Amino acid sequence: MSLFKEEHLECPFCHQDVPFILHHSINVGIHPEHKAKVLDNTLFRYQCPHCKQTDEVCYPTLYHDPENEIMIQVLWREEDFGQPMDKELQSLIEVMGQKNYRRREVFGYCELVEKIRIFDTGLDDFAISLLKTLHEIQNQEMQLFFHEKTGKELCFIQFKGDELLPECFILDESAYETALEYAKKWQKHHEFYEYLRVDESYFYDDVMRALQQEISRK
Ligand SMILES: [Zn+2]
User: Fold this and answer.
1) How many domains does the chain contain in total?
2) Rounded to the nearest whole angstrom, what is the distance from the C-alpha of residue 56 to the centroid of ligand 1?
3) What is the pLDDT of residue 154?
């Protein structure tokens, strides 16, 4: 099911009323045309009919790809992550045959797009998050977002603070293969109904522990 509702927003530039469709859930099985608009962010943007300025509207939404069995919840506040799910919803997931879904919670649209690209490329997001964790420990002011895989190269978009850098960060497939081994070794137990936050924080403690052991061995 796709859920959407027309709302009226106040344009932050000219303060006039702007109609905007909020998509509380996006089902790309029913509306395949929405996927491209999620990937290029236009589903969440509008152009003011009065002053012609464009703006992004940030709100929680659920991205649902039934064919690939993916559900990604987009959140914007730290306190909304990791909320428990009640028993009724848990059994509903089983009844609806969605037990093997990959469920994720992400912060904002950048992370949503990244997850879709990871899954579309057939990569494991635990392994990608591990690569990002390692990179962030070594380059604390940098943030990576997976973009695409071309040949044996994994390309990441790089942010330095809020600034998007013009060049991609490239990692070789062999680094990914190694990360995948560790990601499998370190993966934690989760219930099928949980929405997981698989980002740089997921393996942070494991990586730090491994680095400590490495240092103490030397
Ligand atoms: Zn306006």
Assistant:
1) 1
2) 13
3) 98
